[in-house]
Amino acid sequence: MYHTSDVVARDVCAWLGDRHLLLATDFDGTLSAVVSRPADAVLSPAVRTALAAVAVHPRMTLAIVSGRRIDDVRVRTEGVSAYVAGLHGLEIAGPDTVFRHPGLEAVAPVIAGIRQRAAAALAWCPAAVLEDKTYALTCHVRSVPAADAGRALGQFVEIAQAALDADVLRLLPGAQVLELLPAVNWHKGTAVERIRSAVEAGVQQDVGVVYLGDDRTDEDAFATLGDLGMPIGVGDRPHDHLIRFRLAGPDSVGRLLERMSAVLR
Questions:
Q1: In this structure, are residues 263 and 12 in contact, taking their beta carbons and an 8 Å threshold?
Q2: DSSP state, 166?
Q3: Alpha-carbon span 251 to 139, nearest angstrom
Q4: What is each CA distance from 103 to 81, 135, 181, 198, 241, in whole angstroms?
């Protein structure tokens, strides 16, 4: 069941009380519609306007937590000031904050080698998209015919198997994607907690966290929030037991952000 943005905004404000709000959100599938090719993702004008209002609101701090690289997110949210966590939190940038996980550099040559071999192996499947993030590699099969998608992903895993077996890389499944990341104990939830601590130090008051997300990687953040957080699922994928509310998609998220900016004083 989807909730209306008005209902969610009302209940979030009641839950927040007098605390400052860290509004953390995924990008793809949450702020922007899911597209076949990552390069084609854009914000609607309404969502962009709502994000900008949150970013300058005195009682809110905005954080965008994405599997994309930080620079990629910034290009797509140009003009919106926010904390940005990229690579599922392995890199973070914001006011007086720069973080890069120390495990990143070691995997760069491994990712480069797998990228080269995967591109050759998947030449038979031009609809499969390899997204090279230097320290991570994603295979997207959203535009691949169903009969071929499993084969393409299977080849992708086979090429990476030695690095997976050696615990150099880990495999992160998503909606019609598989992603290779450094095999370190770090995820979106860890990143949100790090950002929350930085925000709390800056505003010198308690901080409540709203986290919006639509996919498996966001469930790590949902599970980490605890009593300090309000987990909001977007779309059908997040499990019911991990979320407090469910919104239909990016348009509903935009309306929620608009309502939050108007209601919080």
A1: no
A2: T
A3: 27
A4: 27, 9, 10, 22, 32
Question: pLDDT band for position 174 (50/70/90)?
Answer: confident
Query: How many whole angstroms from its chain centre is CA 32?
Result: 11
DSSP type of residue 186: -
Q: Which helix (H) or strand (E) holds 98?
A: strand 97-100
pLDDT at 227: 73
* Number of CB atoms found within 10 A of residue 123's CB: 9
Residue type, 122: L
* 14, 81: one domain: yes
Domain boundary among 130, 161, 182: 182
Q: Which strand (E) or helix (H) includes residue 91? A: strand 91-94
CB proximity list for 162: less than 8 A, separation 6 or greater:
none
Q: Is the pTM of this model over 0.70?
A: yes
Other beta carbons less than 10 A from residue 203's beta carbon: 15
The encoded tokens of residue 107 equal 């995997």
Q: How many domains does the chain contain in total? A: 2
Task: Characterise 235 by phi-psi region: left (phi > 0), alpha (psi -120 to 50), beta (else).
Answer: left
- Whether 175 has a pLDDT exceeding 90, the answer reads no
User: Residue 4 carries which DSSP code?
Assistant: P
Same domain, 68 and 128: no
Phi then psi for 10, rounded to 5 degrees? -60, -45
E strands, 119-168, are: 129-132, 137-140
Could you report the per-residue pLDDT of 43-85, keeping only the tens digit for each?
999 999 999 999 999 999 999 999 999 999 999 999 998 999 9
> Is 51:90 a contact under the CB 8 Å cutoff?
no
